[in-house]
Write a structure and sequence with these properties.
The structure is a homodimer of 238-residue chains.
Chain A: H1 3-12, H2 17-24, E1 29-33, E2 38-40, E3 48-54, E4 57-62, E5 68-74, E6 93-96, E7 100-106, H3 107-116, H4 118-144, H5 147-165, E8 172-174, H6 179-186, H7 190-202, E9 206-209, E10 212-215, H8 218-225
Antiparallel strand pairs in A: 1-7, 2-6, 3-7, 4-5, 4-6, 8-10, 9-10
Helix pairs in contact in A: 3-4, 5-8, 6-7
Chain A binds a DNA duplex (30 and 30 nucleotides) through residues 146-147, 178-180, 188-192, 194-195, 198.
Amino acid sequence: MKTFFIRRLRAQTQLSEEDLAAIEALPMQVKDIERRTPFVREGDRPSQCCLILEGFAVRSKTTDEGKRQILAIHIPGEMPDLHSLHLKVMDHDLSTLSKCQVGFINHDAIHRLTRERPDVASALWRETLVDAAVFREWIVNVGRRDATARLAHVVAELRERLKVIGLLQDHHFGLPMTQMDLADTLGLTPIHVNRVLQQLRKDGVLDIKKETVSFASAERLDHIADFDELYLHQHPMQ
Amino acid sequence: MKTFFIRRLRAQTQLSEEDLAAIEALPMQVKDIERRTPFVREGDRPSQCCLILEGFAVRSKTTDEGKRQILAIHIPGEMPDLHSLHLKVMDHDLSTLSKCQVGFINHDAIHRLTRERPDVASALWRETLVDAAVFREWIVNVGRRDATARLAHVVAELRERLKVIGLLQDHHFGLPMTQMDLADTLGLTPIHVNRVLQQLRKDGVLDIKKETVSFASAERLDHIADFDELYLHQHPMQ
DNA sequence: CGGTGGTTTGATCAAAATCAAGTGAGGTGG
DNA sequence: CCACCTCACTTGATTTTGATCAAACCACCG
């Protein structure tokens, strides 16, 4: 059930088998959620955290003028609102991209577990810190990179993150985002995303069609993107 | 010594007096650092966390092409690299804006304290989560707001954060940033910041000169900035 | 077969970047 | 005490990137 999550924890922490078992044992309520459905909203005060078991989700905010900004793209095995454990009010929305299977775990249960098992507490804390590291990189992305690099950068990031959970095929991966969604994550208009995408396609760098992203060379992509995976903190043992 | 930090914790958590005392008792090495001096760098593996006792600091990243992006502005009472407790390698730089007094606390000491006092652990975890919430808002800021709103937004944010630690005068506060620094936090060029600033000045919204920011009306500022303090999570009891 | 959601194209416009050159205040040294 | 240096800010002219507006196009689906 929590396979992807455990897979990520195994790769990125040194949790003992007992700790992992205790996490496995956390009571969880599983729900299927339709594609493109908001399921936690700004202003909410959740009493549970969710774990994405299957599918993709995004966190987003919308400005006064109705402009949406996607803040994070979440893949299976991630807990997009883990922060709600300690921040009572949601300051943004959480919605599915594709049809998702989502597990809900009560705050109480997690709090109990973290009090009993400090290593689990550290591992979860760490999860939220990696989240923050990704936010930081995204600030750089929208603040200081041009449209082409921006697009290449999110693709490179997703590639590395999907690799850890085994959802990366050789030179492509599935991504249920429209050009409109991409625009909202990159701080661009969909029209411009379309044009940049065409250029990247023409240059043989990357292609996005039918919800799959493919790229010829990871190195080439990284170079265009100014991508350095350090900020993902996926290889903590080094 | 840790006055500002304790002041923020008192305002934002329900830590017991013993917990607060235990934090006060943490051994800390105090250093004075000159203005505009980097003191933690990308790639470093810190063995201590720092606490800003006096002065202002920023976190930043620099792209391949040498463009700098400021990720956060830190004020007295904040711990800019608290995340290094669980993320071993720094993924960005930390440097002073003004002359600073900085306290350094060993990771070991903090780890010991958090194991003994789960409420302290939660409070520190929470600190890093608020940090992340600010990053999220900054993504929106650079991604979806025009130059004027962007500038107004950071000013509004700093106003609210400085209020908590008592460094906000009625309608102005000190901020040791140049227009170049502002440009690097807003994802703009200094020239453009200058022009936007002139307009805001002319409109009587806000003025920045000689390292002090003044504004006529907080409401007016917030409106221009599309600012809603919710994301700062400064009033957790509501 | 028409509707719908997503993508593409073209034309025009605006925001912000770039290039280049001042100004002006504060600090230093002759 | 004044010349000069430096750093920050300012101004103007021009260009670029990406936004906006408007209209096809296209594939999938009921």
